[in-house]
Amino acid sequence: MKLYWRQLSFLIVLFFLILILIQGSSLYLFYSYYFTSGIHTFYFGDGGEILGKTMGGLFEVVIPHLASQGIILFLISHFLVLFNGKDNSYDKVAIGLVLSGVFNIFAGPLVLFTGLSVIKIISYVLFQAFFTYSLYLIFKSFVFSHFISETKDSKLPLV
Hints:
This protein is mostly helical.
């Protein structure tokens, strides 16, 4: 039983190390690229070497992202609903995750329509916050449900 809890502890630490690396790389990309001037240059060009984006070019990016992020968000949202607590708070996180994901996907065309570069920044931060929080809730629910079922069945100490 001790070996089992050591392995589970190792998996918990490994999961959160990977999550921290992913979030760290996302934050690095965010701070190195996603400033208002960088977004404005990316979408509208600088009049020289960097050309502005067209709506057709953006939809070439949006459509594959709808498929790939749709599958991932579908799975994560269903895990949130399955691991839901008594107060149905995970349902709200699942809805927020899906809405922020769709907002993040369509933020590029919205920047072209409105000219406001801050839309991309808000959508990115909102999506990353919901994504990280939903992964935390899923993992916490899984570990605690497994922990409770194991401790009910065995009388061994959890050291």
